[in-house]
Design goal:
Rossmann fold, six-stranded antiparallel β-sheet, 13 strands, about 60% helix, about 15% strand, flat
Length: about 650
């Protein structure tokens, strides 16, 4: 694809009020002093195509500012271009303007926002169609790579640069085959994953290997001091001491057996004496059985007598209360009977004057008779009700009187029964007192065969206990404890040998383990060497292919790291000097060299903008169109010059 810039016009764009660049697809120079708008030309071109300036910003200031750096309102900011694309001329136009609206009730219009209008070949176009047309022609990244000498070298990160270079070199690079031995090691894993596995294994093995000297040193620090110790002599001494201790234990067991016999004799004695006391109690109880029973019966009878006396007092109190109640109820019944008789003898008396209570005139005879009859009926009803009420109350009191009488009769019978019981208990107590007044019988225990047998056994046991002396084993215990302490002390000393032998065996195991770990590490390092060898061949092939595609600039695609091996990188070199350290001319020519190669690889020739090209006396020649932006203090306004 061949893209040529024919014309570029800017109106009220970032301070350029009216500028027209007409180059007809030829190389051209734009001269101007500082701050005259040279960079603005490329900013306008990129904004027209992609809504961004040369630094990739979308929110940069488009409007023309006044002397106070405030936007000048109601201007249209326009960029327009004509491009020849593979022989076909296409025009693009974009206008950015303010939107002023006069609201109801307001005298002046207000700024409510901004609009952007688009044209392709003078045909109004929507933004999405405008952007789609440009992107179908050439995407933003590719356009910048091929038109901006600093885009590849300064405005994208090293990873993106490396991706671009690897991509264009892939068609030319001779594949580096993985050696069979390495392929067998890797299996179905990627090379990077296998390197991570080796690194993790090495880290683990190194950690284990580094810990071994520390562990051996710790063992040596804790080794018991066995110098000058006669372990065989200690064993013999311990054996002798253990035999002596066993003899003392045997002697102790004999003393314990002896003392246990004495304990058995004393236990038998206590048991026999207990049997003897129980037998004496039983013999005494049998001899005085009648006396003991009389004593018990006296206590029971006395308690029964007291209970009857208390019950008698309760009945007498109840009888007195019932009699008082009976007398009161009897008086009430007599009074009600007199009241009933008094009401019953009452007769109806006529008391009607025969006059109307309203007009006081004499009433007719039949009405007077009616009044008399009504009065009599009323009297009879009242009298009947009153008699019935007195009769009802009288019946209630009569019932209560009858119940009280029955209670009195019952209580009097209870008193008679209780008084009879008291007489019987008092008579029984007198008989018991007669029995208890007699003396208790004295028992002769020797008459009992069982008692005499127990007495004889007790005497025999007392003799045996007196003759059987208890043995003291306190001194024996002291000797045994002393021997135990000596044996324990010598065993502790003897254990030092065991501890020493265990520690030395452990040291041998650790040294053997250290050797095994070292062998494993060597094996892993051999595998790493194979990977490194393959990687180096691959690096050399890639760098050789990439660098063979450029004339002046070179690339270092990898970097060596002390402990991490080879890492991907993308360092631009100009005559062996890293890009950031090279002079300006070297950097610009490096950018042109890269654009030249990328243009060929992408098969796209686009106009190249070179800002500050006055600093480069010998620019690299390109096949495509070049627009040089030159700082020249002799030109206070932008001036266009065609190259000769």
């Amino acid at each position: 694809m061949q893209i040529k810039l024919l014309e570029l016009s800017l109106s009220n764009f970032k301070g350029l009020k009216d500028f027209r660049l007409k180059c007809n697809g030829n190389d051209i120079e734009v001269h101007g002093d500082n701050a005259t708008g040279k960079t603005t030309i490329y900013d306008g071109f990129l904004w027209l195509m992609f809504d961004k300036d040369s630094e990739g910003k979308k929110d940069f200031e488009i409007k023309t500012l006044d002397i106070n750096n405030n936007p000048i309102h109601k201007l249209e900011h326009t960029v327009e271009t004509k491009l020849e694309i593979d022989g076909t001329v296409t025009s693009f136009k974009k206008v950015y303007k303010e939107n002023w609206v006069k609201k109801r009730g307001s005298l002046e219009p207000e700024l409510t926002g901004h609009t952007t209008d688009y044209w392709i070949d003078d045909v109004p176009t929507k933004k999405k169609d405008y952007d789609a047309y440009i992107n179908n022609t050439i995407d933003e990244t590719t356009f910048k790579l091929l038109t901006d000498v600093r885009y590849f070298t300064e405005k994208i990160n090293w990873k993106d640069r490396r991706t671009i270079l690897t991509s264009i070199a892939s068609d030319y690079m001779v594949p580096v085959e993985v050696p069979p031995t390495l392929l067998q090691l890797i299996g179905n894993k990627s090379l990077e994953d296998f390197k991570k596995i080796i690194a993790e294994k090495k880290k683990k093995l190194n950690k284990e290997k580094e810990a071994i000297p520390i562990r051996i040193d710790e063992l040596n620090k804790n080794l018991p001091d066995i110098q000058g110790i006669d372990f065989e002599g200690l064993k013999k001494y311990i054996k002798t001491a253990e035999n002596a201790l066993e003899n003392l234990n045997n002697e102790g067991r004999q003393i314990i057996e002896h003392n246990n016999k004495l304990f058995d004799f004393k236990s038998q004695l206590r048991q026999k004496e207990s049997f003897k006391r129980e037998l004496e109690e039983q013999l005494s109880e049998d001899a005085n059985k009648e006396y003991e029973q009389a004593l018990k019966d006296k206590t029971d009878t006395t308690n029964d007598l007291d209970r009857q006396k208390n019950l008698l007092a309760i009945h007498k109190t109840s009888l007195v209360e019932d009699k008082k109640s009976y007398e009161s109820l009897h008086k009430r019944v007599l009074a009600l009977r007199e009241e009933w008789n008094s009401v019953n003898v009452k007769q109806f008396e006529v008391n009607v004057d025969g006059n109307c209570p309203t007009c006081n005139q004499k009433l007719p005879g039949e009405e007077i008779e009616k009044l008399v009859e009504d009065a009599k009926n009323k009297f009879d009803d009242s009298k009947k009700s009153e008699l019935e009420a007195i009769s009802s109350t009288g019946k209630s009191f009569a019932n209560m009187l009858e119940k009280t009488k029955l209670s009195i009769n019952t209580t009097e019978k209870d008193i008679e029964n209780v008084e009879r019981n008291i007489q019987e208990y008092e008579s029984k107590l007198k008989d018991l007192e007669d029995i208890l007044s007699q003396d208790q019988q004295t028992v002769n225990f020797a008459d009992s065969k069982a008692w005499t047998t127990l007495e004889s056994e007790i005497n025999d046991l007392n003799i045996q206990i007196t003759d059987f002396k208890e043995l003291d084993n306190s001194s024996l215990d002291s000797k045994k404890n002393s021997l135990k302490l000596e044996i324990q002390s010598h065993n502790e000393t003897l254990s030092k040998r065991t501890q020493f032998d265990i520690a030395m065996d452990r040291q041998k195991e650790l040294l053997k383990e250290e050797k095994t770990l070292a062998n494993s590490l060597n094996e892993l390092e051999n595998q790493e060497f194979k990977i490194q060898e393959f990687t180096t061949n691959k690096i050399n092939a890639l760098e050789s292919t990439v660098n063979g595609m450029f004339n002046n600039v070179k690339f270092k695609m990898f970097k060596d790291q002390m402990n991490e091996g080879v890492k991907e990188d993308c360092i631009i070199l100009i005559n062996g000097v890293p890009y950031p350290s090279a002079n300006y001319a070297g950097r610009i020519n490096a950018g042109l060299d890269i654009i030249n190669t990328l243009s060929k690889e992408y098969d796209i020739m686009a106009p190249v903008f070179v800002d500050n090209s006055e600093s480069v006396t010998n620019l690299m020649d390109l096949e495509q169109q070049m627009i040089k932006l030159i700082v020249d203090k002799n030109y206070k306004k932008l001036t266009i010059m065609e190259e000769i």
